[in-house]
Design a protein that fits this description.
Length: 635
Amino acid sequence: MAVLDVRDIKLSYGIIDILTSVSFTVNKGDKIGVAGVNGAGKTSLFSIICGTLTPTSGNVYISKDTTVGILRQQTENDFGEETIYEYALSAFSDLIEAEKKLDHLSSQLSGGEEHVIKEYTSLSDRFSAMGGYDYKQRATAMLGRFGFAGEELSRPARLLSGGQKTRLNLVNLLLREPDIILLDEPTNHLDIPAIEWLEGYVKQSKKTFLIVSHDRYFLDRVTNRTLELENGFSSIYDGSYSVFREKKDKLREDQMKAYLLQQKEIKRLEAFIEQQRRWNREKNIIAAESRQKAIDRMVKIERPQDKPKSISFALTSTNAKGFDVLSVRNLSKSFPGHKLFSDLSFEVKHGDRLFVLGENGTGKSTLIKILTGRERADSGVFELGYNQKIGYYDQEQQLLDDSSTVLEELWSEYTNLTATQVRSALAKFGFIGDDVFKSISVLSGGERARLSICKMIMTGVSLLVLDEPTNHLDMASKEMLENALKEYEGTVIAVSHDRYFISALADRILELTSTHGYSFHKCSYEKYMEGKNTGTDSAGKFSAAPVSESKQNYEQVKKDKNRKRAIERRLAQLEKRSAEIEKELEEVSKQEQSNSTDYELLASLYETKTTLEYEQLSVMEEQFALEEEYMNFTE
């Protein structure tokens, strides 16, 4: 049975169309993932469905007696003076009013009036049927699921951080249990246990859900249909996000094949028509007209629209080749009244992909800040290996200067680069044209994330330290980051709640627990979860057996061979590029000589020449360093 029908929705701001033609139907109990790049109009569509935004045209039909609730990505609630507990309880406003009325009627029962007794009995039965005698326990349990407990419940809700307010709004929404639940990025600010609980809730619920999320793992586990918004239009597919991606790619491929085949046939017919008209005899003219009618009768296949642009980049490492990257020994950290971790020890080797996992509040981000020199440990030491260069991504993006423009932020760090080089780097991260002159203070979360990553990778680093790098990135940009990290030859330490991202990259897991313990696992995320679910000891901790010295030697030899092959491939690429630059410089010199009076062109040629010469120098430096590294390997 359909509970929501969206018909021909259009949303425009001036001459800019956000949504051009969006139509779809939602059946009762559907779990629909809403996909689309940042800016595709997903949040706007949710606002239209809720009635808080009026579309330019089109209609939304919601079945009778059906309630709609929404979790917004950015909270608009100031919470007044309500405490965390009071705000959660506000989800039960009907029950609270009924409870007050019951108390009032209870005080009148002693009078023995029949109408009072009947009213009290009737209301008491309804109150019980609606869960009135356990709603406070339900609220407390739900708050605990999302990290609110104990004395914190009496804290004013307005004092919470943005992420905590989002979690509190999610608690309130789930307690209200509307018939249609719209979730806009529900897994942001949740730790993995909370995400897993929410997964189970959505899967088991008979409610209808529409979910905007960049968490592909979450979408794959809870959704049965996928609504895509692309270039202002909508399409709906049966299946989870991964199924949708396969279907979408196959459909685009089939459409392109059909388009190209038809274009080939049209060109063949047009060539025949042209030839017949050149001969200009009566029978030739008749034949030409016949073919033209065949073209006119064709149902023209439109060329599939290009995929929306996502960031495009590659990560390069420095020439640091030390096998020992990081050694952490007996590290401890506490804040007043709260102990994070103690006696934490582990080793990180070249090429490791170490992911730090744990519930919120166990010290994951604090550990990252200690390792990058932004926090001090209470005790213990950590040492970086020889010649290691760190690139740090801060999830809070506090390393950006809000008073700068996008261009200034990058150029201030890399003053040796030309404007063309800086703008070229920014373009790879989606900052094109006037975007580079935007003030950082007005950037969206996704734009700040892209700029932070751009800053981090402009110069090669041997160790990437990433704190929630996929937050605010759309699906395509996440996949691009994953692919870049897979090809990256350096070492990665990351904190993330994105299980799809973790699963794609992790080969080491450091788990921090709320009991101040930790465990280190030399395995993939799947193996880690398998061991965690089965348990290999009473404490629920497990780790791989110690690697023998002979196996360590074998693994080192294997890594050396892989590195040698990588150097050989890179040197071949550099040799090819070096030859290309020589040819390009020769061409620029020829143009300078033949256009000696065209000063505007000469200025452009000078900039091109400078850029090429800078690149040539970079290529030569990289070649020299790689050749030196290659000579150090022993057979």
